[in-house]
Structures are given as C-alpha cells and as structure tokens.
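Here is the promised in-class demo. Please do not try to memorize the tokens; focus on the logic of going from shape to residues.
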C-alpha cells in the first residue's frame, strides 16, 4: 500500500520530461497500442468506510477482476483550443503506453451536449476507467453518473466543486489559483484604470472562484485601481478579449493600466489589440495555464505572468493515482484532501498547487522540463 503518496508527491520537485504533443480533430477517437478492449468491469457497488465513518464510492476491491494491462481507460476531454490540454493528454497517453494499458479519447471542443454523448460512446466501448474534464460540469454529470452505474470508475480531472458526479477528482484549488493570477501585478503596485476578462461563466462555481480570487488579491494588497470594464468570454474565446480590449483602448487610451485576463488564450487576444494600437508592453496583462506562447510573451515583456497549473507532473501523477486507486493500491485514507461530488458523497481529491511564473522565474519552467530554452527564447 502506498501510504501518504499524495503528500510525498506534492513535496517533490518537478522533474518530468515533456511528452511530444499530438493533434486531433474535435471528433477524433484515438486508440493507441495496448491490451485489447475487454468487457466492461462489473459494477462496484459496495462503499468502504473512512476513518470518520463517511462512505466513499468504492474503487478498491477490484483486485483480481482484471490485470492492469487488461484495463481500458476512456478520456473525455473538453478542448484542444489551448496548448496545455494537448500536452497533458499526450502525457496521460504516455503513462498508459508505458503500463500496457489501452487509452481511448474523444474531444468535445467546449460542446457539453456533444461531450455527454461522447461519454456514452466511451462507455459502450467497454472502458473500465473514465476520466473527464468539461467546461460545463453539470451538463455532463448525468452521463458520468450513468457510467458509474454501468460499473465504470469515474474520475474528474479538475475539482468537482459539488457540481458533477465522480468517484475521484484532482487538480488545483480554484480560489487559490485566482489569487495567483493577479499576484504579480499586485506586487508591482498596480494602480489606475484596469479591465478584467474572465472565462466562460458556464464553468460554474470554479470560474467564480477564479474571479473572486483575482479581485481579493488586489484588495488585500491595497491596489488603488478603478475598474473600467469586465467581460465574460463564452468558450474562453480570445476574440472576445481582443474586441473588448480594443473598446477599452478607444475609450481610455494611455490611461488604461492593465487588462487582467483569466487565461493565456484571453491574454493573447488582449495583447493582439494592444499590439495593433502600439501599446504592447505598456499595459499590464495577466494569464493562466503556462502556454508556450504566453511564456514567449513574458520573455518579450508583453505579458506579466501566467500560472503553471499542471506542468508535466500533474497529468502523469493524476493518471497513475487513478489507476492505483482503482486497483486498490490506494484508499481514501491515503488522501489528505477530500471534496464532494454532486450526490454529496465525499471523494478523494488529488491536490496539485499552482505556481506564478514571471520573467524572474521563467527558467523554472525550463528546469521542470515543460518547455526548452530554445522553445521559449528561440536560442
């Protein structure tokens, strides 16, 4: 039994190498080499008790039903729009390949109804473990619960926040990440007229937690700001950030001090508008997700910061931990953090903290093997 695995993992330094990124269309279903697809694992219906007496959806007790190399893992992915999602899925594929496990995936590109149908399709292919990340957790929750009822072990790649069904989850604490998004500009003593571009509100309470954290950091550090614009971006569309930034530039010109964006894609849209107006580098812009283009902009001085939310470590650790929990090598007691699913059940939460990346520590990303110096600096 790998006791206290999660705590030990989080204490470690980021050392994993980058898995080569692949590509695929929104409708692609990919099956790599591995064991042949078998019948779905029979339903696990008994829940183990925790030390506190609470029940958890049981993954343990599956030992002997299948060898690890006979498992089939289905991944329902929300998008390839941002670079991080392509890279992280490739890393998860690599983990499965190394263990002889078959992995198949489908990508919905922020279409939640389409994703619900894709989840049903994955279940019909005889998967044993389902891993989901969605832009609209509540919309796909019924499909996830149906998968569990069919005997599939259901995992959510981010925090469920009580909004979808899962038996295991992981990721970042969203409020803490939100605070990090504006941490660097707050430390610079941000003042003056600022605008905000947030992600898709359909994302639920997690997006609201990002929002609250962004504002609370600025308030806690007594930034003397005047908010002149706020915009939510459906499907995290960079063109929305671009068009709104164009409007703010037209209205406030050189008085605009910052455009605080919730991710790197939105930051790219805002920076394009600033570049077209000859104001790049003069207006502070934030982001999140540690996309390569964002790091290049940080190196060039047109973006202040981004957040390394997963690197190469998280997708590998998440995949391995899902497998180990399913096989019974880990139990609820091995996890320091817990959260609840949409049924009010307590489930394990594999916590991975984010890290603010600025021009001052951009080499930390290189040292972690996420990107090379040549990729970031062109050297």
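The designed amino acids, position by position:
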């Amino acid at each position: 039994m790998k006791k206290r695995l999660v705590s030990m993992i989080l204490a470690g330094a980021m050392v994993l190498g980058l898995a080569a990124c692949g590509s695929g269309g929104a409708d692609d279903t990919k099956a790599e080499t591995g064991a042949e697809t078998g019948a779905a694992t029979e339903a696990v219906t008994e829940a183990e008790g925790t030390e506190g007496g609470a029940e958890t959806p049981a993954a343990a007790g599956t030992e002997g039903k299948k060898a690890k190399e006979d498992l089939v893992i289905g991944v329902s992915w929300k998008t390839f729009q941002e670079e991080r999602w392509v890279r992280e899925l490739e890393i998860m594929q690599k983990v499965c390949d190394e263990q002889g496990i078959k992995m198949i995936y489908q990508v919905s590109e922020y279409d939640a109804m389409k994703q619900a149908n894709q989840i049903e399709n994955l279940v019909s292919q005889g998967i044993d473990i389902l891993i989901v990340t969605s832009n609209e957790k509540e919309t796909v929750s019924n499909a996830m619960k149906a998968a569990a009822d069919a005997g599939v072990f259901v995992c959510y790649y981010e925090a469920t926040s009580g909004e979808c069904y899962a038996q295991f989850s992981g990721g970042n604490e969203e409020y803490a990440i939100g605070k990090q998004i504006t941490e660097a500009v707050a430390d610079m003593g941000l003042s003056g007229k600022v605008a905000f571009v947030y992600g898709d509100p359909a994302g639920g309470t997690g997006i609201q937690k990002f929002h609250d954290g962004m504002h609370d950091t600025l308030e806690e550090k007594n930034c003397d700001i005047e908010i002149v614009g706020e915009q939510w971006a459906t499907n995290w569309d960079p063109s929305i950030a671009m068009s709104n930034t164009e409007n703010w530039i037209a209205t406030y010109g050189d008085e605009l001090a910052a455009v605080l964006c919730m991710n790197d894609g939105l930051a790219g849209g805002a920076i394009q508008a600033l570049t077209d107006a000859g104001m790049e580098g003069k207006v502070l812009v934030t982001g999140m997700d540690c996309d390569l283009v964002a790091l290049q902009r940080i190196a060039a001085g047109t973006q202040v910061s981004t957040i390394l939310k997963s690197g190469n470590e998280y997708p590998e650790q998440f995949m391995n931990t899902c497998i180990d929990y399913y096989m019974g090598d880990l139990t609820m007691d091995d996890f320091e953090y817990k959260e609840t699913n949409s049924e009010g059940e307590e489930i394990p939460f594999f916590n991975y903290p984010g890290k603010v990346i600025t021009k001052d520590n951009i080499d930390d990303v290189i040292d972690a093997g996420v990107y090379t110096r040549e990729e970031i600096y062109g050297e």
